[in-house]
Amino acid sequence: MLQPPRRSRGFRQASSLLATQIRHAAEGRGFAVARLLTHWAEVVGADVAARARPVKIGHGRGGMGATLTLLTTGPYAPLLEMQLPAIRERVNACYGYNAISRITLTQTAPTGFAEGQASFDHAPRARPMPDAETRRAAQALASDIADPALQAAVARLAALKLSRQGRPNRKVRE
After folding, report:
1. Count of H helices and E strands in the chain?
2. What residues does each domain of the chain span?
């Protein structure tokens, strides 16, 4: 008769619960030692960790030495370029042997492309208000409506439509 595996009693560290998932994610990017990712600030120092983060490790065909790719913003790249030998020594100390032979820097903008285009954190852009004459004309069009909420909504719609009459339509032509 098979007995179910015995469950441990008491509390367990969160790191032990997530260790296998972190290891699989790190190995997918080429990191044989997940400690490099999880303790990046301790390995390279707080000043370097604030300016760059590891992205991937690529292994060459010969298998001798790997290339560590760091992601940084444009202004910090020259500063980090001067610190590359020290960063390489610290990372190799984390591995325990000369695992990293080369470090490359990848520069990016402080915000990604998508964040610059559409961000859900910011309020929507305010629409330009139509001029007073357009608002009066829209109010006159909606004056026959008895319900005040509906009258206000129709007046806003009419003002928007009247203010766009002079501008070309923004639809994409086929």
Report:
1. 8, 3
2. 20-110, 132-164
CA pair distance 66, 102, nearest whole angstrom: 7
Lowest mean pLDDT among 48-57, 59-68, 132-141: 59-68
Query: Measured between alpha carbons, how far is 128 from 167 in angstroms, rounded to an integer?
Result: 13
Answer yes or no: are the C-beta atoms of 58 and 104 closer than 8 Å. no
Could you report the per-residue pLDDT of 3-15, keeping only the tens digit for each? 766 666 667 677 6
What is the torsional sign of CA 129, 133, 136, 141?
negative
Is there a contact between 56 and 29 (Cβ–Cβ < 8 Å)? yes
Calpha distance 170→35 (Å, rounded) = 52
User: What is the chain's mean pLDDT, rounded?
Assistant: 76
What's the whole-model pTM score?
0.47
The number of beta carbons lying within 10 Å of the beta carbon of residue 69 is: 16
pLDDT in tens, 129-173: 788 888 899 899 899 999 999 999 999 888 888 887 766 555 544
Which of the listed CATH numbers 1.20.120, 3.30.300, 3.40.50, 1.10.10 matches domain 20-110? 3.30.300
**CA dihedral over 16, 21, 23, 29, signed as positive or negative:** negative
> Which amino acid makes up residue 30?
G
Which one has a higher pLDDT value, 88 or 59? 88
